[in-house]
Design goal:
By secondary structure, the protein is mainly alpha-helical. It has one domain (32-83, 101-313, 388-443): Cytochrome p450 (Orthogonal Bundle), CATH 1.10.630. Helix content is 53%, strand content 7%. It is built from 21 helices and ten strands. It has helices spanning 7-10, 37-50, 53-59, 64-81, 94-99, 107-124, 139-147, 151-156, 158-169, 173-179, 181-202, 206-210, 215-220, 233-264, 266-279, 289-292, 298-311, 344-348, 369-378, 392-409, 420-423, and strands spanning 18-19, 104-106, 320-321, 327-329, 332-334, 339-340, 410-413, 425-428, 430-433, 438-443. The strands form four sheets. It has a three-stranded antiparallel beta sheet, with no helix packed on it. Strands 2-10-7 form a three-stranded antiparallel beta sheet. Strand 8 (425-428) and strand 9 (430-433) form a beta hairpin. The chain is globular and about 60 Å long. The protein starts with 6 loop residues before the first helix and ends with a strand. The structure holds protoporphyrin IX containing FE. Protoporphyrin IX containing FE (HEM) binds at residues 31-32, 40, 119, 242-243, 246-247, 250-251, 254, 313-314, 318, 381-383, 387, 389-391, 394-395. The site of protoporphyrin IX containing FE has 23 residues, from helix 14 and helix 20. It comes from Pleomassaria siparia CBS 279.74. Its cofactor is heme. Heme binds at residue 389. Belongs to the cytochrome P450 family.
């Protein structure tokens, strides 16, 4: 039952509405698969400190800003090597163009390489080196992307999905890779998480040398006095897969939404660039996310917030089971065990809270405190309550840093390289667009 009203009752701290989970060979055992609050709380005792704001800020210089520099340097090379003849709007294969130094960049892939490398480096202290692949064409990232083709099958036809996996798992790696890319994508995530865990088990002190623990370090060193128990190996690997699956596309989608909408709205772009030029006088300097969350970057934050709203996070259902005694929802009694859901898409486009809801209008976030709080409460992009997104701080840091430096340094033209149709999306658990957002990159004039 899809409900648009009682999200405050369902998505709150200590909610009696439990997560619904269908068995899945990759993610069962992970935080996301835990349905009851006590078991969720136990796992979060390990994970929450790792994803806290303080923890993210602490690693930022060696993580985000390093990855961001790599990303920006690649764009810089593209912009510098562009020739006047090679980049013409409407050419079909802009990834090829990108390799030839035409100045056209496949941002769909670029953003995913950035988010995948950032998340993996943060969680495992080891990334895919995807940002260094020519044209951002990382085979592993492409396999992750293909993985979403199976997400809906896994959600709506879990039994068929289990049988399918059983069959595909028996095939050789080469065959899986060639003919079953979505499954191969998930298997790749599983393998990477496992490799990292094995490495840590064999080298228990390696994190203390770098002072940057991975998410597994906390789990491998439980606080026995607090009654903590290391999750099983299988469950830790599932958590590793979960972080890549949950954080890569979601964050990259917001970046794509922002890039498209800003470049399609000259007034918005002019305002954003004006603010960035004022706050970032030297365009080569990389600021911290804390600086970008301070005074002088209000419009930047409004742009990111509006991008989050219209990227829809997980747009379809985020299902919850009604507690066994039943519940009154929207003035009706709903029997216990019924599966209900409030879709993020419906919440984020509620016309009563967001007038002209499909318009990309960062200005709507620059309002009085009461209206801002009301709009903020209505947004469900990261979900809310006990099962809200655990990666919200990592996501915000990535978004503020990337949007600020991307638009400060580069003038990007998407018209002629990306169409409205490319940007229309389908629900594959996350929104998957028809095409890929591409743009011609030039260094912005001072
Ligand atoms: C803009 C980026 C992101 C958006 C919009 C987003 C959105 C969401 C949403 C809506 C949920 C709840 C899903 C549900 O209830 O079924 C969720 C859960 C989750 N997210 Fe995110 N997410 C983002 C980034 C990240 C990142 C960067 C990470 C970590 C690397 C992450 C890790 C998780 C995890 C582990 C859960 C499961 C929490 C639980 O089961 O209690 N997310 N996210």
């Amino acid at each position: 039952m899809r409900l648009n009203v009682p999200k405050k009752r369902i998505f709150k701290v200590g909610t009696p509405f439990t997560r619904v989970w269908h068995d899945n060979p990759f993610l069962t055992g992970s935080l996301q698969s835990l349905t009851t609050l006590p078991e969720t709380k136990k796992r979060k005792e390990f994970l929450n400190p790792f994803f806290s704001k303080a923890a993210i800020v602490r690693v930022e210089p060696s993580l985000h800003r390093r990855k961001l520099r790599l990303f920006l340097d690649t764009l810089q090379q593209q912009a510098s090597s562009a020739t006047s003849t090679s980049a013409s709007p409407g050419k079909e294969d802009s990834s090829e163009q990108q390799q030839q130094g035409s100045g056209v960049v496949d941002f769909f892939l670029g953003f995913r390489c950035l988010t995948a490398d950032t998340i993996m480096d943060y969680c495992f202290q080891q990334d895919l080196n995807a940002l260094s692949e020519p044209g951002f064409r990382s085979e592993t990232v492409e396999a992750f992307i293909a993985g979403f083709d199976l997400a809906l099958v896994a959600t709506y036809f879990p039994n068929f999905f289990a049988v399918l996996n059983g069959v595909i798992f028996r095939l050789s790696e080469g065959v899986r890779r060639k003919y079953f890319a979505p499954v191969y994508g998930f298997q790749t995530m599983q393998k990477l998480a496992e490799e990292r865990l094995v490495h840590l088990e064999k080298n228990p002190n390696c994190a203390s040398k770098t002072k940057l623990p991975t998410m597994f370090d906390a789990m491998l060193a439980p606080d026995v006095a607090k009654g903590q128990v290391t999750p099983s190996r299988h469950d830790m690997i599932a958590d590793g897969c979960l972080m890549i699956a949950a954080g890569t596309d979601t964050t990259a989608n917001v970046l794509g939404t922002v890039l498209w909408n800003v470049t399609q709205n000259p007034d918005v772009e002019a305002k954003l660039v004006q603010e960035l030029k004022k706050g970032m006088t030297d365009r080569e300097v990389v600021l911290s996310s804390v600086e970008l969350e301070g005074q002088g970057f209000e419009y930047l934050r409004a742009v990111v917030k509006e991008g989050l709203r219209l990227a829809y996070g997980v747009p379809g259902t985020i299902p919850r089971r009604v507690p066994k005694e039943g519940a009154m929802l929207g003035g009706r009694f709903i029997p216990g065990g019924t599966i209900v859901s409030a879709g993020i898409y419906l919440q984020n486009t509620d016309a009563a809270t967001f007038p002209d809801p499909f318009k990309f209008d960062p200005q709507r976030w620059l309002c009085d405190a009461e209206t801002h709080a009301k709009r903020d409460r209505q947004m469900l992009s990261f979900s809310r309550g006990s099962r809200a997104c655990i990666g919200i701080n990592l996501a915000y840091a990535t978004l503020h840093l990337t949007v600020a430096h991307l638009f400060r340094r580069f003038d990007i033209k998407t018209t002629g390289y990306t169409t409205e149709h490319d940007m229309e999306w389908n629900d594959r658990f996350v929104p998957v667009p028809n095409g890929r957002i591409k743009g011609l990159v030039k260094v912005r004039e001072e």
